[in-house]
Amino acid sequence: MAYRLPTFALQTSIRHLCRYGDTDVFPHLPELAFVREEAESVVDELVALDLDTFDPGTAVEALGPKSRYGFRIVHQLPYLDTILLLAAVIELGPRIESHRPSQNNIEAFSYRYALNDKGSIFRGDRTFKEWLQAQLQYVQGNPGIEHVIATDISDFYARVNFHRLENLLDEVAPGHGAARYIKKHIKVIRAKQSFGLPVGGTAARLLAELALSDTDNALERDGRSATRFVDDFRIFLAAGEDPYDALAFIAEQLAINEGLSLNVAKTEVYSRAEFLARVKRQTADISDEAEGAAIEALTSDLYFDDEPDEDDVEKLKSMNLIGYLREEVAKASFDMGRIKVIFRALKITKPPEAIQYIIDSFSTLVVFSKEVTLLMQELEAEEFSCFDELSDTVVKAILSPPASSIQLMRTWLLELFVRRIVPLAPSHLKALDGSLSTSLDRRQLHLIRGRLGDKNHFRKYKTAFGQITPIEQPCFIWGASCLPKDEYETFVQGIKPMFPMPTGALFLKWAAKQREKLISKLESSVDEHQE
Q1: Less Cβ around it within 10 Å: N or C end of the chain?
Q2: Is the pTM for the entire model greater than 0.85?
């Protein structure tokens, strides 16, 4: 038996990844620049690949922050596996979509499969803010609704039952090669557990929707008036309907059939008036709101990188965003969503005072390493070298708790040096090199050494390239581009036998051809979407 992905699925996968990136958790893979520039050749090679005999690689797993003292495991796949898994999901997209409630209703609102010419595989009118607006219209149009339950699923992605997902894939696409490959791939990624989806990638989003399709359909069959966005549920109750009964129904459905449970801490019952007031605040025009309410509206507006209009931007510029951020960071319990939104607003407005705030408060902001790194990149583009004095501070933060204990924080802090937002002296590099040992850390250090033109490092280790972990190898090749042309080409030619995987030789050929430009491509691996 052999299964090969069709050209269309591969082309769509690559177009999506090159526009939106491979993950919304890690810094994007630099190899996406290769995929974008060699898309036609990559497709030509992958279309002949038999996925029934091809063995996918495992994913990078790392600990990331979820709250002040909460954590989650996040994943990043190699570029080849990312392309193949997403292409397989795209191939099954119409079948998965047909298994879900109608798109004409609001029951299953999020991530509806629909291709467009911009590279997205999801409907563009199903953002979080549009979900809020749909709820508002629904409640206003149904005067009989007296209460609304808001709840969500505890650790949803991490708890998706793999065997249930297998059964659902067999149900929507019996005997299909793409379904076989998806099951094989997830089994490799989650080899140590029988549950969980890889966190951070597009393919997992549609698979997560499939995992909850039976719950959506059960609510519909039972006559429950409800809507869902990913793992967030809203259940609408008419007069005489008991909240306990509705919650018991969905809790039983999730527990018995899916092995999932509701998050008690995030379960609330609102009166009709309370719910309408809350949603109206969240969907308000930012420019029409007082500052406190405007932030809540912004939370909805920017949930999926929607850009506010010019009036909203002017309103944001007039707000004390730094003050809001100070206030939120000082709280005993972080509202991570709100903090991320404030960082997003700061990225849009780029207030000059944010530079000094970051310099003064960097150690406090480390827990938000992704958000602060992306904000610093925007600010540095406006005022070149504005963070040059932070080198010592960043190195100290990387080597101290919490970053020394949490991989994802370190990866993003190292990205400050990879992107040359903060300069790094040889003494700093020596301190980092002597203390960081994980493959993810070493991957970043190879890129940083390439930035610094550390030829001695690459000359020392290129003869032992085969002993470098597969996770590190592409970044070592990237960094080694600082070597002279003839030396680099000889190195690349010599490691070809170590790259027998599909597109491996193509990648090496491209790297040799692009040697002088490789380092600059670290800042442009995707077309327009930042992490």
Answers
A1: N
A2: yes
Q: How far apart are CA 78 and CA 10, in angstroms?
A: 16
Rounded CA gap, 204 and 201, in Å?
6
Q: pLDDT tens, 254-301?
A: 999 999 999 998 999 999 999 999 998 877 655 455 555 566 555 555
Q: What would the pLDDT profile of 62-89 be if each residue is shown by its tens digit? A: 999 887 788 888 999 999 999 999 999 9
Return the ∠ at Cα 98 (arms to 97 and 100), rounded to 5°: 70
Contact present, 64 and 238 (Cβ < 8 Å):
no
Which residues are 225's β-sheet partners? Answer: 236
Are 43 and 50 spatial neighbours (Cβ–Cβ below 8 Å)?
no
Sort strands 232-238 and 225-229 into parallel, antiparallel or unpaired. antiparallel
* Contact present, 193 and 186 (Cβ < 8 Å): no
Structure tokens at 217: 């359909």
Residue 311 Cα distances to 163, 299, 314, 315, angstroms: 49, 16, 5, 6
User: Which tokens hold the place of 312?
Assistant: 């909203």
Long-range pairs, 286-295, Cβ under 8 A, ≥24:
286/311, 286/312, 286/315, 286/316, 287/311, 287/312, 287/314, 287/315, 289/315, 291/319, 291/320, 291/324, 294/319, 295/319, 295/324, 295/338, 295/341, 295/342, 295/345
* CA–CA gap between residue 441 and residue 207 (Å, rounded): 30
Closest CA to 336 of 130, 72, 528: 72
Two tokens, residue 236: 């609408």
CA angle centred on 382, ends 377 and 385, rounded to 5° = 70
What letter represents residue 493's amino acid?
Q
User: What number of H helices and E strands is found in the chain?
Assistant: 26, 6
DSSP 48-96: T--TTT--PPPPEEEEEESSSS-EEEEEE--HHHHHHHHHHHHHHHHHH
CB atoms within 10 A of CB 62: 22
Give, for 270, the enclosing helix (H) or strand (E): strand 268-271
What ranges make up the beta strands (E) of 107-241? 145-152, 225-229, 232-238
Q: Which residues are within 8 A (CB) of 375 and not within 5 positions of it... i.e. 6 or more apart? A: 343, 346, 347, 354, 358
Cβ pair 367, 340 in contact under 8 A = no
CA distance 463 to 406: 32
